[in-house]
Amino acid sequence: MPTTVKGVVALAEKQPAELVDIVIPDPGPHDVVVDIEATGVCHTDLAYRDGGINDEFPFLLGHESAGRVSVIGESVTHVQVGDYVVLNWRAVCGECRACKKGVQQYCFDTHNASQPMTLTDGTALTAALGIGSFAEKTLVHEGQCTKVSEDAPAEVAGLLGCGVMAGIGASLNTGQVQRGESLAVIGLGGVGCAAIAGATLAGATTIIGLDVDEKKLAAAKDLGATHTVHTAGMSPQEVAEKVQELTGGFGADVVVDAVGIPQTYETAFYARDLAGRVVLVGVPRPGVELTLPLLDVFGRGGALKSSWYGDCLPERDFPYLIDLFLQGRLPLDRFVTGRTDLAGTDAALSSLHEGDILRTVVEVAK
Protein backbone atom coordinates (compact mmCIF):
# COMPACT_ATOMS: atom_id res chain seq x y z
CA MET A 1 0.00 0.00 0.00
CA PRO A 2 1.26 3.50 -0.81
CA THR A 3 2.17 5.52 2.28
CA THR A 4 1.49 9.20 2.96
CA VAL A 5 4.19 11.03 4.93
CA LYS A 6 5.49 14.55 5.42
CA GLY A 7 8.13 15.95 3.06
CA VAL A 8 9.73 19.29 2.19
CA VAL A 9 8.83 20.34 -1.34
CA ALA A 10 9.86 23.28 -3.51
CA LEU A 11 6.73 24.00 -5.54
CA ALA A 12 8.03 26.96 -7.53
CA GLU A 13 11.29 28.78 -8.23
CA LYS A 14 12.64 30.99 -5.43
CA GLN A 15 9.61 30.34 -3.27
CA PRO A 16 9.85 29.00 0.30
CA ALA A 17 9.92 25.21 0.44
CA GLU A 18 6.82 23.82 2.14
CA LEU A 19 6.26 20.88 4.48
CA VAL A 20 3.40 18.97 2.82
CA ASP A 21 1.95 15.50 2.50
CA ILE A 22 3.69 13.31 -0.07
CA VAL A 23 2.90 9.79 -1.24
CA ILE A 24 5.49 7.00 -1.21
CA PRO A 25 4.41 4.34 -3.74
CA ASP A 26 4.92 0.64 -3.28
CA PRO A 27 8.52 -0.17 -4.26
CA GLY A 28 9.30 -1.65 -7.66
CA PRO A 29 11.34 -4.87 -7.91
CA HIS A 30 14.67 -3.16 -7.09
CA ASP A 31 13.36 -0.23 -5.04
CA VAL A 32 13.43 0.23 -1.26
CA VAL A 33 11.68 2.52 1.20
CA VAL A 34 14.01 4.11 3.75
CA ASP A 35 12.82 5.66 7.01
CA ILE A 36 14.90 8.83 7.26
CA GLU A 37 16.59 9.68 10.56
CA ALA A 38 18.71 12.70 9.61
CA THR A 39 19.52 14.77 6.52
CA GLY A 40 22.19 17.43 6.05
CA VAL A 41 21.26 20.82 4.60
CA CYS A 42 23.36 21.24 1.44
CA HIS A 43 23.83 24.12 -1.03
CA THR A 44 22.61 21.81 -3.79
CA ASP A 45 19.14 21.75 -2.23
CA LEU A 46 19.19 25.54 -2.07
CA ALA A 47 20.07 25.57 -5.77
CA TYR A 48 17.14 23.24 -6.52
CA ARG A 49 14.75 25.47 -4.55
CA ASP A 50 15.93 28.63 -6.27
CA GLY A 51 15.92 27.24 -9.82
CA GLY A 52 19.67 26.89 -10.17
CA ILE A 53 19.61 23.23 -11.27
CA ASN A 54 16.68 22.93 -13.68
CA ASP A 55 12.99 23.80 -13.87
CA GLU A 56 11.53 20.35 -13.17
CA PHE A 57 9.37 21.57 -10.27
CA PRO A 58 8.04 20.45 -7.86
CA PHE A 59 11.18 19.13 -6.16
CA LEU A 60 11.27 16.87 -3.14
CA LEU A 61 14.39 18.28 -1.50
CA GLY A 62 17.11 16.57 0.55
CA HIS A 63 19.80 14.06 -0.32
CA GLU A 64 22.48 13.89 2.42
CA SER A 65 20.92 11.24 4.63
CA ALA A 66 21.05 8.22 6.87
CA GLY A 67 18.15 6.01 7.86
CA ARG A 68 16.80 2.49 8.06
CA VAL A 69 15.36 0.27 5.34
CA SER A 70 11.70 -0.45 6.07
CA VAL A 71 10.28 -2.00 2.85
CA ILE A 72 12.02 -3.75 -0.05
CA GLY A 73 10.99 -4.73 -3.56
CA GLU A 74 10.60 -8.37 -4.54
CA SER A 75 13.99 -8.64 -6.31
CA VAL A 76 16.12 -6.67 -3.85
CA THR A 77 19.27 -8.46 -2.70
CA HIS A 78 21.60 -5.60 -1.77
CA VAL A 79 19.90 -4.71 1.54
CA GLN A 80 17.38 -6.17 3.97
CA VAL A 81 14.61 -4.67 6.07
CA GLY A 82 16.18 -3.15 9.17
CA ASP A 83 19.55 -2.31 7.59
CA TYR A 84 21.09 1.01 8.67
CA VAL A 85 22.21 2.87 5.54
CA VAL A 86 23.64 6.07 4.14
CA LEU A 87 21.96 7.15 0.90
CA ASN A 88 24.04 7.93 -2.16
CA TRP A 89 23.44 9.37 -5.62
CA ARG A 90 26.03 7.17 -7.33
CA ALA A 91 24.43 3.72 -7.54
CA VAL A 92 26.69 2.46 -10.32
CA CYS A 93 25.13 0.47 -13.14
CA GLY A 94 28.06 -1.84 -13.91
CA GLU A 95 27.20 -1.84 -17.62
CA CYS A 96 28.00 1.60 -19.10
CA ARG A 97 31.28 2.35 -20.86
CA ALA A 98 32.77 3.96 -17.72
CA CYS A 99 31.94 0.97 -15.54
CA LYS A 100 33.30 -1.47 -18.13
CA LYS A 101 36.55 0.50 -18.26
CA GLY A 102 36.90 0.13 -14.49
CA VAL A 103 36.20 3.77 -13.63
CA GLN A 104 32.85 3.30 -11.90
CA GLN A 105 33.23 6.69 -10.21
CA TYR A 106 32.29 8.17 -13.60
CA CYS A 107 29.29 5.88 -14.17
CA PHE A 108 27.06 7.44 -16.81
CA ASP A 109 23.86 5.55 -15.97
CA THR A 110 23.47 5.49 -12.20
CA HIS A 111 20.34 3.87 -10.76
CA ASN A 112 17.36 5.66 -9.22
CA ALA A 113 13.94 4.50 -8.05
CA SER A 114 11.76 3.07 -10.82
CA GLN A 115 8.87 5.47 -10.16
CA PRO A 116 8.41 8.94 -8.69
CA MET A 117 7.00 9.91 -5.35
CA THR A 118 4.00 12.27 -5.68
CA LEU A 119 1.93 14.94 -4.06
CA THR A 120 -1.44 13.73 -2.79
CA ASP A 121 -3.10 14.96 -6.02
CA GLY A 122 -0.85 12.66 -8.06
CA THR A 123 1.64 15.31 -9.24
CA ALA A 124 5.01 13.63 -9.73
CA LEU A 125 7.88 14.95 -7.62
CA THR A 126 11.43 15.34 -8.86
CA ALA A 127 13.63 13.92 -6.12
CA ALA A 128 16.75 16.00 -5.47
CA LEU A 129 19.75 14.05 -6.81
CA GLY A 130 17.41 11.08 -7.18
CA ILE A 131 16.94 10.84 -3.40
CA GLY A 132 14.48 13.37 -1.93
CA SER A 133 15.09 12.83 1.78
CA PHE A 134 13.80 15.91 3.59
CA ALA A 135 10.96 13.57 4.44
CA GLU A 136 9.89 10.95 6.92
CA LYS A 137 10.42 8.27 4.27
CA THR A 138 11.82 8.17 0.75
CA LEU A 139 11.92 5.74 -2.17
CA VAL A 140 15.29 4.89 -3.78
CA HIS A 141 16.97 2.14 -5.78
CA GLU A 142 18.58 -0.54 -3.64
CA GLY A 143 22.00 0.46 -4.97
CA GLN A 144 21.54 3.92 -3.46
CA CYS A 145 21.76 2.37 0.00
CA THR A 146 25.18 1.77 1.56
CA LYS A 147 25.25 -0.19 4.81
CA VAL A 148 27.43 1.30 7.55
CA SER A 149 28.04 0.64 11.24
CA GLU A 150 25.06 1.39 13.46
CA ASP A 151 27.43 2.89 16.02
CA ALA A 152 27.65 6.09 13.95
CA PRO A 153 24.85 8.59 14.73
CA ALA A 154 22.62 9.36 11.76
CA GLU A 155 23.39 13.09 11.86
CA VAL A 156 27.06 12.20 11.34
CA ALA A 157 26.77 9.26 8.96
CA GLY A 158 24.40 11.07 6.62
CA LEU A 159 26.94 13.81 5.91
CA LEU A 160 28.88 11.35 3.76
CA GLY A 161 25.94 11.38 1.34
CA CYS A 162 27.21 14.53 -0.38
CA GLY A 163 29.27 17.50 0.81
CA VAL A 164 31.67 15.93 3.28
CA MET A 165 32.35 13.02 0.92
CA ALA A 166 32.91 15.50 -1.91
CA GLY A 167 35.56 17.35 0.08
CA ILE A 168 37.36 14.34 1.52
CA GLY A 169 37.31 12.68 -1.89
CA ALA A 170 38.65 15.81 -3.59
CA SER A 171 41.81 15.37 -1.51
CA LEU A 172 42.07 11.59 -1.30
CA ASN A 173 40.60 10.35 -4.59
CA THR A 174 40.86 13.19 -7.12
CA GLY A 175 43.88 15.10 -5.80
CA GLN A 176 45.58 11.90 -4.59
CA VAL A 177 47.38 13.77 -1.82
CA GLN A 178 50.40 11.81 -0.63
CA ARG A 179 52.29 11.69 2.65
CA GLY A 180 54.53 14.71 3.04
CA GLU A 181 52.85 16.73 0.29
CA SER A 182 51.35 20.20 0.60
CA LEU A 183 47.74 21.18 -0.06
CA ALA A 184 45.86 24.47 -0.19
CA VAL A 185 42.07 24.76 -0.08
CA ILE A 186 40.23 27.84 -1.33
CA GLY A 187 36.81 28.23 0.32
CA LEU A 188 36.23 26.69 3.73
CA GLY A 189 32.57 25.76 3.86
CA GLY A 190 31.61 22.16 4.54
CA VAL A 191 33.25 20.86 1.35
CA GLY A 192 36.46 22.85 1.77
CA CYS A 193 36.86 21.90 5.43
CA ALA A 194 36.28 18.28 4.47
CA ALA A 195 39.13 18.58 1.97
CA ILE A 196 41.29 19.78 4.86
CA ALA A 197 40.27 16.71 6.88
CA GLY A 198 41.00 14.47 3.90
CA ALA A 199 44.50 15.89 3.50
CA THR A 200 45.12 15.31 7.19
CA LEU A 201 44.14 11.66 6.75
CA ALA A 202 46.48 11.37 3.77
CA GLY A 203 49.47 12.62 5.80
CA ALA A 204 49.98 15.99 4.13
CA THR A 205 52.45 18.05 6.18
CA THR A 206 51.55 21.54 4.95
CA ILE A 207 47.81 22.20 4.80
CA ILE A 208 46.70 25.75 3.99
CA GLY A 209 43.14 27.01 4.38
CA LEU A 210 42.08 30.19 2.55
CA ASP A 211 38.86 32.12 3.12
CA VAL A 212 37.43 35.56 3.85
CA ASP A 213 35.66 34.43 7.03
CA GLU A 214 37.49 34.13 10.35
CA LYS A 215 35.04 31.52 11.69
CA LYS A 216 35.72 29.28 8.72
CA LEU A 217 39.46 29.72 9.11
CA ALA A 218 39.12 28.63 12.74
CA ALA A 219 37.10 25.58 11.67
CA ALA A 220 39.78 24.63 9.16
CA LYS A 221 42.45 24.92 11.85
CA ASP A 222 40.38 22.64 14.07
CA LEU A 223 40.22 20.05 11.28
CA GLY A 224 43.95 19.97 10.56
CA ALA A 225 45.03 23.10 8.68
CA THR A 226 48.62 23.99 9.55
CA HIS A 227 48.24 27.50 8.13
CA THR A 228 45.28 29.78 7.44
CA VAL A 229 45.10 32.92 5.33
CA HIS A 230 42.41 35.60 5.53
CA THR A 231 42.06 36.54 1.86
CA ALA A 232 39.65 39.48 2.06
CA GLY A 233 40.86 42.28 -0.19
CA MET A 234 43.59 40.16 -1.81
CA SER A 235 43.87 39.68 -5.57
CA PRO A 236 44.17 36.17 -7.05
CA GLN A 237 47.87 36.87 -7.67
CA GLU A 238 48.44 37.97 -4.07
CA VAL A 239 46.71 34.84 -2.72
CA ALA A 240 48.78 32.62 -5.01
CA GLU A 241 51.96 34.36 -3.87
CA LYS A 242 50.99 33.78 -0.23
CA VAL A 243 50.57 30.06 -0.87
CA GLN A 244 53.95 30.00 -2.59
CA GLU A 245 55.48 31.77 0.41
CA LEU A 246 54.09 29.09 2.76
CA THR A 247 55.44 26.27 0.59
CA GLY A 248 59.07 27.21 0.24
CA GLY A 249 58.44 29.54 -2.68
CA PHE A 250 57.19 26.77 -4.95
CA GLY A 251 53.41 26.46 -4.53
CA ALA A 252 51.30 23.61 -3.19
CA ASP A 253 51.38 20.09 -4.62
CA VAL A 254 47.57 20.12 -4.69
CA VAL A 255 45.20 23.10 -4.68
CA VAL A 256 41.48 22.48 -4.18
CA ASP A 257 39.03 25.13 -5.41
CA ALA A 258 35.91 24.61 -3.29
CA VAL A 259 34.24 27.80 -4.55
CA GLY A 260 34.07 27.45 -8.33
CA ILE A 261 34.34 30.98 -9.70
CA PRO A 262 36.95 32.26 -12.21
CA GLN A 263 38.89 34.24 -9.59
CA THR A 264 39.35 31.28 -7.25
CA TYR A 265 40.23 28.93 -10.08
CA GLU A 266 42.87 31.37 -11.34
CA THR A 267 44.27 31.50 -7.82
CA ALA A 268 44.36 27.70 -7.67
CA PHE A 269 46.05 27.47 -11.05
CA TYR A 270 48.93 29.76 -10.08
CA ALA A 271 49.16 28.70 -6.42
CA ARG A 272 50.26 25.16 -7.30
CA ASP A 273 53.79 23.96 -7.81
CA LEU A 274 55.04 23.08 -11.29
CA ALA A 275 53.44 19.74 -12.23
CA GLY A 276 51.03 20.18 -9.31
CA ARG A 277 47.35 19.28 -9.35
CA VAL A 278 44.34 21.60 -9.37
CA VAL A 279 41.07 20.08 -8.20
CA LEU A 280 37.79 21.89 -8.90
CA VAL A 281 35.10 20.65 -6.51
CA GLY A 282 33.11 23.89 -6.13
CA VAL A 283 30.23 23.82 -8.63
CA PRO A 284 30.28 26.75 -11.09
CA ARG A 285 27.08 28.53 -12.06
CA PRO A 286 25.83 28.01 -15.63
CA GLY A 287 27.31 30.40 -18.17
CA VAL A 288 30.46 31.26 -16.20
CA GLU A 289 33.61 31.30 -18.37
CA LEU A 290 37.30 31.04 -17.54
CA THR A 291 40.23 32.55 -19.45
CA LEU A 292 43.81 31.36 -18.92
CA PRO A 293 46.90 31.80 -21.12
CA LEU A 294 47.24 28.55 -23.04
CA LEU A 295 51.02 28.77 -22.83
CA ASP A 296 50.76 28.77 -19.02
CA VAL A 297 48.49 25.72 -19.14
CA PHE A 298 51.14 23.96 -21.21
CA GLY A 299 54.17 25.28 -19.40
CA ARG A 300 53.09 24.55 -15.83
CA GLY A 301 52.24 20.91 -16.57
CA GLY A 302 50.56 18.83 -13.93
CA ALA A 303 46.85 18.12 -13.95
CA LEU A 304 43.63 20.15 -13.94
CA LYS A 305 40.89 17.93 -12.56
CA SER A 306 37.20 18.18 -11.75
CA SER A 307 35.94 16.22 -8.76
CA TRP A 308 32.41 14.80 -9.00
CA TYR A 309 31.17 13.60 -5.61
CA GLY A 310 34.81 13.36 -4.56
CA ASP A 311 35.27 10.62 -7.20
CA CYS A 312 33.90 8.30 -4.54
CA LEU A 313 32.57 4.79 -4.72
CA PRO A 314 30.02 4.69 -1.89
CA GLU A 315 30.34 0.96 -1.22
CA ARG A 316 34.09 1.39 -0.80
CA ASP A 317 34.34 4.80 0.83
CA PHE A 318 31.37 5.21 3.18
CA PRO A 319 32.07 2.21 5.47
CA TYR A 320 35.79 3.04 5.50
CA LEU A 321 35.23 6.65 6.55
CA ILE A 322 32.65 5.69 9.16
CA ASP A 323 35.16 3.24 10.64
CA LEU A 324 37.76 6.02 10.81
CA PHE A 325 35.23 8.21 12.61
CA LEU A 326 34.50 5.48 15.15
CA GLN A 327 38.25 5.04 15.70
CA GLY A 328 38.56 8.75 16.48
CA ARG A 329 40.67 9.43 13.38
CA LEU A 330 38.12 11.46 11.37
CA PRO A 331 36.11 14.07 13.32
CA LEU A 332 32.93 14.00 11.25
CA ASP A 333 30.90 15.21 14.23
CA ARG A 334 32.65 18.60 14.10
CA PHE A 335 30.89 19.34 10.81
CA VAL A 336 27.49 19.41 12.55
CA THR A 337 27.08 23.05 13.57
CA GLY A 338 23.27 23.27 13.73
CA ARG A 339 20.15 21.14 14.09
CA THR A 340 16.51 21.58 13.13
CA ASP A 341 13.42 19.56 12.27
CA LEU A 342 11.51 19.15 9.00
CA ALA A 343 9.45 22.26 9.71
CA GLY A 344 12.64 24.32 9.97
CA THR A 345 14.18 23.11 6.72
CA ASP A 346 13.40 26.15 4.56
CA ALA A 347 14.86 28.52 7.14
CA ALA A 348 17.98 26.34 7.29
CA LEU A 349 18.27 26.47 3.50
CA SER A 350 17.99 30.26 3.48
CA SER A 351 20.63 30.53 6.21
CA LEU A 352 23.17 29.04 3.77
CA HIS A 353 23.32 32.49 2.14
CA GLU A 354 24.95 33.78 5.34
CA GLY A 355 27.79 31.26 5.04
CA ASP A 356 28.64 30.98 8.74
CA ILE A 357 27.88 27.28 9.29
CA LEU A 358 29.38 23.99 8.12
CA ARG A 359 26.28 21.80 8.26
CA THR A 360 22.83 22.10 9.73
CA VAL A 361 21.21 18.68 10.12
CA VAL A 362 17.48 18.08 9.84
CA GLU A 363 16.54 15.43 12.39
CA VAL A 364 13.39 13.43 11.74
CA ALA A 365 11.40 12.33 14.78
CA LYS A 366 11.28 8.54 15.09
Automatic annotation (TrEMBL):
Keyword terms:
Metal-binding, NAD, Oxidoreductase, Zinc
Q: Is RNA-binding found in the keyword set?
A: no
Q: Which residues cross the membrane?
A: none
Ranges where the Alcohol dehydrogenase-like C-terminal domain occurs: 190-325
Gene3D superfamilies recorded for this chain?
A: Medium-chain alcohol dehydrogenases, catalytic domain, NAD(P)-binding Rossmann-like Domain
Q: Which domain of life is it from?
A: Bacteria
Keyword match Nucleotide-binding: no
Signal peptide residues on this chain, from the entry's feature table: none
Q: Which cofactor does it need?
A: Zn(2+)
Q: What class of enzyme is it?
A: oxidoreductase
State any single GO MF term.
mycothiol-dependent formaldehyde dehydrogenase activity
Where would I find the Alcohol dehydrogenase-like N-terminal domain in this sequence?
28-149
Q: Which InterPro entries match?
A: ADH-like_C, ADH-like_N, ADH_Zn_CS, GroES-like_sf, MycoS_dep_FDH, NAD(P)-bd_dom_sf
EC numbers: 1.1.1.306
Tell me the Gene Ontology biological-process terms attached to this UniProt entry: formaldehyde catabolic process
Q: Which family does it belong to?
A: Belongs to the zinc-containing alcohol dehydrogenase family.
The name of this protein is S-(Hydroxymethyl)mycothiol dehydrogenase
Name its species: Brachybacterium saurashtrense
